[in-house]
Amino acid sequence: MATIIDLAIVLVAWLVSLFLFVAVLSILGALDPTQVGAAGLDPLALSSREIALGFFGAGILFAIGGFYHVYAWSRLGATPGQQLLKMRVLDAQTGHLLRPARAAARWFVAELPGLNFVFGPYILVWYATVAVSVGRDPQRRGVHDRAAGSVVVRYFGTA
């Protein structure tokens, strides 16, 4: 559930940023939004500009998602979705907030499924790996938690 809440927040931020980017390009005359996608959904008929915009959009989504998670884990101890469910992501050894580098490692390893366009059907192998790693660990730490040296804990107080 926390992931769904966080995904919604990241997607709204992404859509707003893309809207602003396209608006600025349109105002500058570098892009005619009425012509984008005019060829339909045929990927072979897309122009190089449309392909570049697609990769740019994916890169912006990657950057926004990364900043959102790394900032939340390293400064707040949890994303807003995790906070609603009274969860915290902490350093497994010290119990303190993650350092930004560890938060980035956790996010990147967890985000490997987001690279679906690269891995294709092998994405199922990744999900199976995460499920097995969580099931075998006594603290229920997934591959991404082990890579970052983090642990997810539940709290029942106000902090």
Question: What is this entry, summarized?
Answer:
By secondary structure, this protein is mainly alpha-helical. Helix content is 60%, strand content 6%. The protein has one domain.
Compute the number of helices: 7
Would you tell me the overall average pLDDT? 83
The SSE string, one letter per element, is: HHHEHHHHE
Number of strands: 2
Shape: elongated
| Low-confidence segments | none
Strand order of the largest sheet: 1-2
Distance between the termini: 20 Å
Please give the largest β-sheet. 2 strands, antiparallel
Description:
With about 160 residues, the chain is mainly alpha-helical. The protein has one domain (about 1-155). The protein contains seven helices and two strands; from the N terminus they run H-H-H-E-H-H-H-H-E. The longest helix has 29 residues, at about 50-75. About 10% of the residues are buried.
List the helices and strands and how they pair.
Elements: H1 2-28, H2 48-76, H3 80-84, E1 87-91, H4 100-110, H5 116-119, H6 123-136, H7 143-148, E2 150-154
Antiparallel strand pairs: 1-2
Helix pairs in contact: 1-2, 2-4
Main features:
single chain, 159 residues, mainly alpha, two-stranded antiparallel ribbon, 7 helices, 6% strand, elongated
